[in-house]
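Quick question about two entries, pasted in order.
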Amino acid sequence: MATYNPKGASNWESGKRGFQSALNPCQQIGLLLIWAQNDWKNAIGREFLESRYRISLPARTLTAYKGRFKKFWLKGSPVDIPAEWSDFKELISHGVPEGHLSSLHSMWRDIQRMCLDVGVIPINPTYRSLKWWSYVSEYHGNSINIPSDIQIVGDQYMVREMIADMGGKPFVKDDIDMWLLYEPWVSQENMRRYLTLIREQKITSIDWGNNGWGLEIADSVERADQYPEGYGMSVLNWLLATSPEPYLLPSQIIEKYSIFARP
């Protein structure tokens, strides 16, 4: 029998053998990490999906996800455990540049504060996620300098790399690379060039819709106070996923369209 989330997505589809995921990659990796960091408690996973995405799944479906995720987790990849901030040698060995540690830890503090302010359990950053946050900051810091943008774009790389590892498939990131190369959020000229190349099928459009956005939002308390009353993680994720201008940076979308969001 099929199970459905509030959007009508089925986990067991007619004509397809086995379990078909109703969660996008960001939702899956977020669920995996929040579970792994909280003793695999069903209640924690259920709260994560409901608070971040307003998705409610039956126990049978949660059990199916847990089985798949535990199988991957028990392989024991050290890059996916929570980073130990006091172990500088370990951080550097996992590709986290020493010069970025202070700014990365500041982002983590902002994530904790924002999650606690809206009443949800934060996901601790892993060595893998810190590596990708550093990557975005180091190579694209001239045009992406707001912490929430660095974190959300870095999470995209992290999520896709983990999904590839879980499924034994190639790491697909060309659409992110081209979006970062042409920087359509910087100017109308850049936007026109980017859209022209997409129409001419010379590059692939950034795919936020199918992959989701970031796992958390590394925003400051001051900026968060500007959001509409009742503005929680689920509203924020909905706003980013349904933006009429998906090629802007997350911070630009939030600033431009948060007035239209409703809790």
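Here is the second entry:
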Amino acid sequence: MQQMDMRETRTTSRTRSSRGGAVGPLGRAGRAEVHRGRAIAAADPSERFVEAYRAARCAAGALLAPGPRRRGPVDVWHRLAAEVPELGEWATALGGYSALAAAVEDGLPRTISARMADDFLWAVGRFMDLVDQRLGVLGPAA
């Protein structure tokens, strides 16, 4: 049985739609909304936190220039700070949760309180509002 390279799968799933076409900024923003909805619906604080983090990561990706990068930062938060300096503080703040999100996703024992998950989800919602404004997307109240 041939072994699949997970890095290739992750890259492909992040840059391609289910129909095989490239995913644009609005598609990534839509994917962020899906994760945010899952976070809101999650009863478990760890699941709420991880889904909120995924939403933030997708939203950040919606603002990044597509195509291959020659040099420079490769992680979404460093790229966001470099390509959209006005959101550098958000990139730093949200990027600070990367290790915790990875640990929780990997099933490592980490304590995420309901309050922390709720506060993080709230912050991610504010970040997503800023992303939507930059993309020219009207929010639910509009």
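Reply: DSSP finds seven helices and no strands in the chain. The longest helix spans residues 114-135. Hope that helps.
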